[in-house]
Amino acid sequence: MIRAVLFDMYETLCSHYRCPLYFGAQMADDCGIAREIFLPLWRDGDRENARTLGQLSLEAQLEYILPRCGITDEGHMTGLIRRVCQKRSQSKAQCIRSLHPDILPMLSALKAQGMKLAVVSNCYTEEAQAIRAWPESNRFDTLMLSCEQGVKKPDPEIYRRCMSQLGVMAQECLFIGDGGSSELEAARSLGMEAMQALWYMRGVEDHPSQRKNDFPGLDEPMDVVVAVGRKV
């Protein structure tokens, strides 16, 4: 019997691809740095991991990158960091408002069925701030955000902490995500039901997520409600 539905945030509840992107390439352009110089530093795996775990802020990341790209004037660097951080925050806030029209009705319908709801998301500090500031975040019984927890998917610990907050067992949980970060496999390995959200993949060329045939796919948000209805 399903008592709780856990959602990934990006490309499940909201999508980066429904609004203008502001990723590393756009930051490089704003800083006047060639992308081929900026992006390898931005995508450094160890530093990205530290950002996901809340150990490194966006400001600190830019303070590391810009001098290595030849920007050493302190005043100029400070101005660039301020501009990039502001645009990144605005971009994340816009992303979270760029919802499929059935997302909020789906959450309301799940609540009407008595479901506990949670977000389990790998995210950076600027993303967590946007999620916390999102007026609809109060629809969820808990927000389990990697940069606040110091642990990220697919580590089972972040799922266990979520279950503890909700007061449910794995067998009572349905996890919905686009499939990044091996999140579906991790949820299933704990005993959760896991299904793949497909609605944001449609019509997006080179979307980072791909269909995983090992998991049931949900074409529309309201399909979550139908799936839950079959298991209560």
SSE map:
Elements: E1 4-7, H1 24-31, H2 35-42, H3 45-52, H4 58-68, H5 74-97, H6 103-112, E2 116-121, H7 125-133, E3 142-145, H8 146-149, H9 156-166, E4 173-177, H10 183-189, E5 193-197, E6 217-218, H11 222-229
Parallel strand pairs: 1-2, 1-4, 2-3, 4-5, 5-6
Helix pairs in contact: 1-2, 4-5, 5-7, 6-11
Write a concise keyword list for the protein shown above.
single chain, 232 residues, alpha/beta, six-stranded parallel β-sheet, 11 helices, 47% helix, 11% strand, elongated
Extended strand count: 6
Compute the average pLDDT: 96
Q: Which structural class fits the helix and strand makeup? A: alpha/beta
Helix percentage:
40-55%
- Helix tally equals 11
**What is the spatial order of strands in the main beta sheet?**
3-2-1-4-5-6
Shape category = elongated
Rg value:
19 Å
Order of helices and strands: EHHHHHHEHEHHEHEEH
Flag low-confidence runs.
none
In whole angstroms, how far apart are the ends? Answer: 5 Å
Strand content: 5-15%
